TrEMBL record:
<dbReference type="GO" id="GO:0043590">
    <property type="term" value="C:bacterial nucleoid"/>
</dbReference>
<comment type="similarity">
    <text>Belongs to the helicase family. RecQ subfamily.</text>
</comment>
<keyword id="KW-0378">Hydrolase</keyword>
<dbReference type="InterPro" id="IPR010997">
    <property type="entry name" value="HRDC-like_sf"/>
</dbReference>
<dbReference type="GO" id="GO:0003677">
    <property type="term" value="F:DNA binding"/>
</dbReference>
<feature type="domain" description="Helicase C-terminal">
    <location>
        <begin position="215"/>
        <end position="365"/>
    </location>
</feature>
<dbReference type="GO" id="GO:0005737">
    <property type="term" value="C:cytoplasm"/>
</dbReference>
<keyword id="KW-0862">Zinc</keyword>
<dbReference type="GO" id="GO:0009378">
    <property type="term" value="F:four-way junction helicase activity"/>
</dbReference>
<feature type="domain" description="Helicase ATP-binding">
    <location>
        <begin position="25"/>
        <end position="193"/>
    </location>
</feature>
<dbReference type="GO" id="GO:0016787">
    <property type="term" value="F:hydrolase activity"/>
</dbReference>
<dbReference type="GO" id="GO:0009432">
    <property type="term" value="P:SOS response"/>
</dbReference>
<dbReference type="InterPro" id="IPR006293">
    <property type="entry name" value="DNA_helicase_ATP-dep_RecQ_bac"/>
</dbReference>
<dbReference type="InterPro" id="IPR002121">
    <property type="entry name" value="HRDC_dom"/>
</dbReference>
<keyword id="KW-0413">Isomerase</keyword>
<keyword id="KW-0067">ATP-binding</keyword>
<feature type="compositionally biased region" description="Basic and acidic residues">
    <location>
        <begin position="496"/>
        <end position="520"/>
    </location>
</feature>
Amino acid sequence: MVSTLEILRHTFGYDAFRAPQEEVIQTLMAAKDALVLMPTGGGKSLCYQIPAIARAGVGVVISPLIALMEDQVNALRQAGVAAAALNSSASPAEARATEEALLQGTIDLLYIAPERLLQERTLALLQRSTVNLFAIDEAHCVSQWGHDFRPEYLQLRVLHERFPQVPRIALTATADSKTRQEIIERLALQKAAVFIRSFDRPNIRYHIHSGSQGARNALLRFIRDRHAGEAGIVYCLSRKRVEEVAEWLQGEGLGALPYHAGLSADERRRNQQRFQRDEGVIMVATIAFGMGIDKPNVRFVAHLNLPKSIEAYYQETGRAGRDGLPAEAWMHYGLQDVVQLRQMIQQSEADLPRKQMEGHKLDAMLALCETTDCRRQTLLGYFSEHLALPCGNCDNCLQPPATWDATVAAQKALSAIHRTGQRFGVQYLVDVLLAREDPRIQQWDHHQLTVYGIGKELSANAWRALFRHLLLRGLVEVDAEGHGGLRLSPSSRPLLRGEEKLTLRQHESTTPKRRDKRPE
Ligand code: ADP
Ligand code: ZN
């Protein structure tokens, strides 16, 4: 039998395994299950491709994306591996030929979409063939709380029931501990050996800024000053904005192309090919672009909007610098993004627990944006990974942000919550702090409180931002009934007693307003 190392060298042309490829491959060679958590670009594919080739029979790869599948099949065929795909884009004749080859045992790797796999006909076909492993790619798609949830993935546990002898490997680049647990439970992978590689991408430098204006110009300056002539991706939230930004960059003389789901399949393919092949193309895209992009020298990924979760941010920025050379992740977002994303969550069809989960994910993303600590430590911390020292390669490390001591303001805000009985929402509390005339305040006699009007040094916007921070940091909580009433959480006590300080990033909306001296 050909050794796995020989396959690595002769078929794929690489000298050595990367951690933990070799151990994963050995696990599958021994017909045991594996769960592999590795960042994008880490080299997950070889983990199942090599044992599928080395063992007798066919390795079946379940992948949610047809475009991705075809790239993989083509690359494998070029390397001389007998690979095929079964999906809706194959003609009936092609599908028949593939099925025939399966039964003959002349295919090493079969790529298949989950809905096709789950058809009884396909399962029966596989039972008549010799399957040597099942690889479940993008396994986080089983997570109902994830942004890539695919209902068919839930049914994949049928593989365990129908093919109990066949080892399974689940792979993902997205795995906080909760998703990890979900994958294990939903795919019945309790016995799987788990392989985790650090999510850190030390060659990516992170920059995040906010502000309501000037995003496009800041982007242009960033590209011209730091990435002239280099390939990059610019993510925008809407198709319309993609078109606008692509056109505008073109007008500025840059080689930008649009990519979003509203373009014809043909145009998308053309633009993607140009990005992949040509030098220095900037792809302006919605998140429809990216899964399966394998361009090693993307030098920057820019976001002109806030991603809706840290997972999404990590995955999108992870497309930069796959060659290991310095690359940058740059983001500019506005408060408007937060409002828009919150509305999207509110107005979606999802049930309440799901909406709450999405709300928490957005909050975590915002916490990453607003932190004055090392971005990498915060980011990795979210994935339950601990980085001992600040990284020295993010905006906060390189240029510690201007901050202001918000301790006193926070004490006032917390007192306002406490004195008004811990049941009012942000707007009401701000009205109390600013001593605004409001019949409700009179009705509750809150104009008699000591906190009434003690917050005039900050604008209403600054107070709202401060309350948002208190929420983000878990110092206050929203009532469970969902009326938006705020309560103090136990962790606010040290701050209230003055035993702890609160330091916040200084930006437009949170900076204390200048008080002009006026004659009384
Ligand atoms: P992932 O699926 O984890 O995002 P891929 O499997 O697409 O990553 O691999 C990313 C890149 O790394 C590919 O270009 C792949 O050929 C390359 N690669 C994988 N394993 C090795 C290795 N052992 N040595 C060198 N390059 C590798
Ligand atoms: Zn840092």
